[in-house]
Amino acid sequence: MSLAWNFLSFLFFLVILSIGISMTMIVFSCYTTEISTTKYRGLSYVMTQPFFILGEIIIIFLAYIYLNSLSSGNWRAILFWVSMIILINFFLSIILLKESPRFLLLKGKNNESFVVLDSMLTENSK
Question: Where are the domains of the chain?
Answer without folding.
Answer: 7-124
